[in-house]
């Protein structure tokens, strides 16, 4: 069962020759989600072999251009490719008006529906849920209303241990009952506890995207224990005064969130254009949190399933 994050953009607002504005693709069990849509996002998707027709939903963290300018041409391109199924779009409330204007002036006859879903950036709330996945908002601290996003896999169904099927001669009905979490009664009246028959094939996985934000202990609490955390690290810690004034974080602050939240791995991005080499930021983060990595464009971070046997 797949769970991965592909980096499409790692820059902050100012253009650079070799970095693109913020965008990522999150793949949870072959469900593809676009998280932020900086300028040029569709070109980046093509560059890295991601079919835009696979996108199930779009999540926009906030309404600064480097996170949203690429959304509108993508909407038009999807129509050219013949998309027919609805596209849910989640984001701060004013994005709804922007979408209305885009549809009015550029795509009045769009062949698929835009399902606009406003996000309350002040609340930690469930945004999307299906059989295998939940997506939650995470309030952030920026100059404009901003939300991060938490992708959390649901617990997989129980499996019945093969050796127990043979040991007790379980029938199909008894196996089905065990998979539902029930204890099983044998023909001789013996009651076998469910925990002695079943196991979870893997532990649920989780990914958190903390876009533009000042250091936030609350956000750290809300994403505690995730396998993979993306946290903006626009500046080195020497520039912490500028970071604070502009509603951003330093690499050390991103690492502090990862450490306090006890995450598995940290990915940092949204680099200021003043840093020609992001290694200075990555190395700074690693002084506090060793499992820190750069948001290298085109790189896919895979979250492996951890067996619970």
Automatic annotation (TrEMBL):
Pfam families: Anti-Pycsar_Apyc1. The active site is at residue 66. It is an enzyme of class 3 (hydrolase). Its cofactor is Zn(2+). Its EC number is 3.1.26.11. One of its GO terms (molecular function) is 3'-tRNA processing endoribonuclease activity. Zn(2+) 2 binds at residues 66-67, 212, 270. Binds 2 Zn(2+) ions. Keywords: Endonuclease, Hydrolase, Metal-binding, Nuclease, tRNA processing, Zinc. Zn(2+) 1 binds at residues 62, 64, 142, 212. Residues 1-21 are annotated as: Disordered. It catalyses: Endonucleolytic cleavage of RNA, removing extra 3' nucleotides from tRNA precursor, generating 3' termini of tRNAs. A 3'-hydroxy group is left at the tRNA terminus and a 5'-phosphoryl group is left at the trailer molecule. Zinc phosphodiesterase, which displays some tRNA 3'-processing endonuclease activity. Probably involved in tRNA maturation, by removing a 3'-trailer from precursor tRNA. HAMAP family: RNase_Z_BN. Homodimer. Belongs to the RNase Z family. This is Ribonuclease Z.
């Amino acid at each position: 069962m797949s769970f991965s994050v592909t980096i499409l953009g790692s820059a902050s607002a100012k253009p650079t020759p070799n970095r693109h504005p913020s965008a990522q693709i999150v793949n949870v069990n072959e469900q593809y989600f676009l998280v932020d849509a900086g300028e040029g996002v569709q070109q980046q998707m093509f560059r890295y072999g991601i079919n835009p027709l696979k996108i199930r939903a779009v999540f926009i963290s906030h309404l600064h251009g480097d996170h949203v300018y690429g959304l509108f041409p993508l909407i038009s391109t999807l129509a050219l490719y013949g998309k027919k199924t609805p596209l849910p779009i989640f984001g701060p409330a004013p994005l709804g008006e922007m979408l209305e204007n885009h549809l009015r002036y550029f795509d009045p006859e769009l062949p698929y529906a835009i399902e606009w879903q406003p996000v309350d950036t002040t609340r930690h709330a469930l945004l999307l849920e299906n059989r295998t996945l939940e997506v939650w908002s995470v309030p952030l601290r920026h100059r404009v209303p901003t939300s991060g996003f938490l992708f959390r896999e649901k617990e997989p169904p129980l499996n019945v241990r093969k050796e127990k099927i043979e040991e007790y001669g379980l029938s199909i009905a008894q196996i089905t009952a065990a998979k539902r979490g029930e204890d099983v009664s044998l023909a001789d009246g013996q009651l076998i506890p469910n925990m002695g028959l079943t196991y979870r094939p893997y532990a649920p996985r989780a990914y958190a995207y903390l876009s533009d934000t000042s250091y936030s202990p609350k956000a750290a609490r809300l994403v505690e224990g995730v396998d993979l955390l993306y946290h903006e690290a626009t500046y080195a810690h020497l520039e912490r005064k500028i970071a604070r004034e502009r509603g951003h974080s330093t690499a050390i602050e991103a690492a502090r969130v990862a450490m306090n939240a006890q995450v598995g791995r940290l990915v940092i991005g949204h680099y200021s254009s003043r840093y020609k080499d992001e290694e200075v930021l990555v190395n700074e983060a690693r002084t506090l949190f060793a499992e820190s990595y750069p948001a290298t464009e085109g790189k896919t971070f895979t979250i492996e399933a951890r067996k619970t046997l």
